Amino acid sequence: MRVLCSVKRCLIFSAILLGTLISCTQHPKTIEEQLHHDAGRIAAYYAEKAAREQDQGRFDRAAEFYRKALESVPYDPTLHNNYGTCLYHLGKVDSAVAEFKEAIRLQPNYAAAYVNLGNAYRLQGKYDLAIAALREAIRRDPTLARAHATLGLTYDRMGKLDLARKAYETAVRVDPSDLVARFNLGSAYLRLGYLNQAIAQ
Predict the structure, then answer these.
(1) I need a surface site. Which of 15, 74, 103, 167 has the fewest CB within 10 A?
(2) Which of 89, 86, 93, 104 has the alpha carbon at shortest distance from 50?
(3) Spatial separation of the C-alpha atoms in residues 29 and 45, rounded to whole Å
(4) What is the pTM of this model?
């Protein structure tokens, strides 16, 4: 009986040891497996991580997470726009333009994506395309102060100072708290010789 009990104990111990070895050698589940390959949940998981990295200015990591989110949900215009924004900040402007265009294709009334597209074109020196995109943004959402401000920057870069002034004025009227637009407006006034208006800004 003692021998039998000892054998049983050995068998039980061996089984426990084997189970421990098996569990130690198993690979941890990927996030896709943990979320049961639910595309929406996977995209939301990566998008949340991307947004946190983006808020911290870590655009390279944010871009990677947005890319992973888009692998699960490739038809989300917001993800394309946000991914494009990260690429823009990383200096990958051509790729950013492609993402902004895709966001607009998926959601034609996406005013913010038009602003981002216009800003990217401005950086590339494609001013006519920038103005066209920014006017589309304003047509879709006239209250978007950033669209007016970016239009002002574009005209400013082209040397069309009076048109820049008008765009800056609209931006400040739409959003009086936009300090950058106020600064640019003051600068435009100063260069146009409107000293009193410049001081007021």
Answers:
(1) 15
(2) 86
(3) 15
(4) 0.79
